[in-house]
């Protein structure tokens, strides 16, 4: 098995949108509107300041993705890179796809002088939490709050 990680290209948008829909259903049983998610994915390609996607390929076939967005920290005078919208197709899970994408993101973040890499995870998703901890990530002492507009 050959695993490669590459920056996403616009031609990947359909896969990324479909994987976001699958991830939302698998993790939260939430249905996403396909037209909205398609526009949301395209918006990342339209405005690189929003972030970028990475694609994992197994034997030349796209099997997963993640999105990186940026958060400015005035406390640290630098950017945190947020990993979001992580998805690996079921047949490629436990293949090292996420581990490889994470390694590439942290390499790029280091080169860009980011101050850290963050992500959030569902409180019940113990398998994912274990994966992140094995990669050296630590649970933060912050809770997340939101107000939808």
TrEMBL record:
Protein's UniProt name: GNAT family N-acetyltransferase
Keywords: Acyltransferase, Transferase
PROSITE patterns referenced in this protein's UniProt entry, alphabetically: GNAT
CDD domains named in the record: NAT_SF (cd04301)
Acyltransferase recorded as keyword: yes
Domain annotation N-acetyltransferase: ranges: 3-149
Species: Dyella soli
Molecular function via GO: acyltransferase activity, transferring groups other than amino-acyl groups
